[in-house]
């Protein structure tokens, strides 16, 4: 249950992007690759921000989910197994968690100290999940602010572009 708090930096970044660009927080798969027409019709999976593919379980008792996975390589956030996208796939979705994948070539910030509230995590360090692509490159964006008010409206925030050169 408390694992959801580890994704606060992902959510804060996605909400900042929504606030500044209008991009939705939960993005249709066409945001993963606007030139991949096969992803346009997929309505079960979505992108969380730029770098995470989320595939909810929609059938009672299901232990797998079938979805179109966008082009490229994707890494499971749970066991770091890699899947090659560009096709419809059956993905594991055990009772313990749903299918969630990082996009290779991305950097995602998380708060990995498990706590019971966001307030307790206010000063915890970010853990950068770096999923390099085949060329050893990765990039991502991270938004951070005071996490308890509207200081961002007065410029009290950081929006950082992170990259790894191969």
Describe the structure concisely for a colleague.
The protein has 166 residues and is mainly beta.
Protein described:
- It contains one helix and twelve strands.
- Helices cover 8% and strands 36% of the residues.
- The protein starts with 7 loop residues before the first helix and ends with a strand.
- The strands form four sheets. The chain has a six-stranded antiparallel sheet. A two-stranded antiparallel ribbon has the order 4-7.
- It is mainly beta.
- The mean pLDDT is 93.
- The longest helix is centred in the N-terminal third of the chain and has 14 residues.
Task: Indicate the topology.
Layout lengths: L7 H14 L4 E2 L18 E3 L3 E4 L8 E6 L3 E4 L5 E3 L2 E6 L6 E5 L2 E5 L16 E5 L6 E8 L11 E8 L2
Categorize the overall geometry. globular
What kind of sheet is the major sheet? Answer: 6 strands, antiparallel
Please tell me how large the radius of gyration is. 16 Å
Separation of termini?
Answer: 36 Å
In what order do the strands lie side by side in the largest sheet? Answer: 1-2-3-8-5-6
What's the number of extended β-strand segments? Answer: 12
Fraction of residues in β-strands: 35-45%
Number of helices: 1
Low-confidence runs: none
The overall pLDDT, averaged over residues, is 93
Class of secondary structure makeup: mainly beta
> Which series of helices and strands comes N to C?
HEEEEEEEEEEEE
Helical percentage: under 10%
């Amino acid at each position: 249950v408390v694992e959801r708090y580890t994704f606060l930096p992902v959510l804060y970044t996605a909400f900042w992007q929504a606030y500044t660009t209008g991009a939705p927080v939960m993005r249709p798969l066409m945001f993963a690759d606007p030139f991949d027409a096969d992803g346009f019709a997929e309505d079960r999976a979505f992108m969380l921000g730029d770098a995470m593919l989320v595939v909810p379980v929609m059938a009672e008792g299901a232990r797998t989910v079938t979805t179109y996975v966008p082009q490229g390589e994707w890494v499971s956030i749970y066991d770091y197994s890699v899947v090659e996208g560009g096709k419809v796939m059956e993905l594991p979705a055990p009772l313990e968690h749903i299918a969630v994948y990082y996009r290779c070539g991305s950097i995602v910030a998380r708060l990995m100290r498990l706590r019971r509230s966001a307030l307790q995590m206010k000063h915890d360090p970010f853990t950068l999940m770096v999923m390099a692509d085949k060329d050893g490159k990765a990039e991502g964006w991270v938004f951070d602010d005071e996490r308890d008010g509207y200081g961002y409206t007065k410029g009290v925030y950081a929006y950082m572009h992170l990259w790894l050169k191969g």
